[in-house]
Design brief:
single chain; alpha+beta; five-stranded antiparallel β-sheet; 5 strands
Length: about 130
């Protein structure tokens, strides 16, 4: 499962961006499953002393199940990069971390820089 982390400077903006992206990821054929990351929390650390919920949602972090082939991953990364260039999404960044720890950061690069970053990441994947 790949971890997608968004950063928009503050928790509210980050959470809103994550919800917009989550809705779109769920509609992509390449993404088998997408959800908000949930983090276990000890009973004493739960907000307001809530004893019912053993976990909280990690703001700005999504988990996505995608086929880990270079072609599919390249398509998803291109989609994420293009998503960053849409109005309302431009001031943020997206980091995608693979299950093996490999990570790519898309901090709103130009289309050409984005293509080079993604191509380099996919080349590295193919070497494994």
């Amino acid at each position: 499962m790949a971890r997608i982390t968004l950063d928009y400077g503050d928790a509210e903006a980050t959470d809103q961006a994550a919800l917009r992206l989550l809705a779109e990821l769920r509609g992509l054929d390449e993404v088998r499953r997408a959800e908000r990351e949930r983090v276990p929390v000890a009973a004493g650390d739960r907000p307001g002393g809530d004893l019912r919920s053993p976990e909280i949602i990690a703001v700005g972090t999504l988990l996505a199940t995608i086929a880990m082939t270079p072609e599919v991953l390249g398509g998803v990364l291109s989609y994420l990069g293009e998503w960053l260039h849409r109005p309302g999404n431009r001031r943020g960044s997206i980091h995608l971390r693979m299950p093996d720890g490999k990570e790519i950061a898309l901090d709103n690069p130009s289309a050409e820089e984005r293509r080079k970053l993604i191509d380099a990441f996919i080349r590295e994947m193919r070497r494994r």
